[in-house]
Amino acid sequence: MKHRTGVIIGLLVLVAVAGSAFYLFADYNSTGIIIKTNGTEVSVQSSSWFPVPKAMLGEMRTKALADVQDADSSLGSIQTDMQSIASKYNFTVQVTVNSQFGENQLPLPATVRGTSMVPTLQDGQDIVVLKTSDFKVGDLVVARHPEYNLIVKRVAEINGSQVYLKSDNRQVEILGNQIRTINGVQQVVTIEKTPLDTWLPKTNVIGVVKIY
Asked: Model pTM?
């Protein structure tokens, strides 16, 4: 009886070991990829117990940094890019992004150009944006503008699918005088630069300025 019990236990152990070995072998080329970033730096780590090609992780790191600093990237596009790289090494990956804003929250570093947001933001000041479509009146946001590319403004009003963005700097800048002919008469015209206030589609807003 004891001998039979020992045989049964031995068989169960072999089955368990074989099952574990099969499971580990099946998952050998599958790993979790954790991207850690603050917007300006990126590290890429594998959660696998098995060795992962260093070349794959290096390629992922380079691409992830470029993606994070791309205003048009998203969590989905970064995950797709990492999976595309992994496939070249016969790997499948599950990608998680960790930033100062939390899990799967993307930061975007940017630099202010111009004085339209003085005194809140200064020309040349570095900022960090949280990519999100969740914003409210009063927030500082970065948005795509059809003429000026990326702009940073304050949300003044939200109306349906449109958002009204305003400059904090309300001063009118005098650029100089020009002589123009108006109705056949030459006149001196003062050229002014007024603050940029604009209506844009809400979908043009990239995210909310969190660090400045």
From this structure: 0.77
